[in-house]
Amino acid sequence: MTLRYWAGARDAAGVSEETFDAGPSVGDILDAAVGAHPALRPVVAVCSVLVDGRAVGRDVVVGDDQVVELLPPFAGG
């Protein structure tokens, strides 16, 4: 499963994307990402999570071929 980081999440992780072999749920994947990159903890708390472009919760089960995206809130003009 691919986890893609955007904006502040990318900065906290130090990479733009990586592959995880974690449990089946989005929550398991996010926990694995925070374990690998502790600086992500406060970012994950405020992020939206997308699976294949759709907003999901931590309990959603994802397949190995799906992309999970971590999208922090942003401001712009």
Automatic annotation (TrEMBL):
InterPro entries: Beta-grasp_dom_sf, Mopterin_synth/thiamin_S_b, ThiS/MoaD-like. It holds the Pfam family ThiS. This is Sulfur carrier protein ThiS. It comes from Knoellia subterranea KCTC 19937.
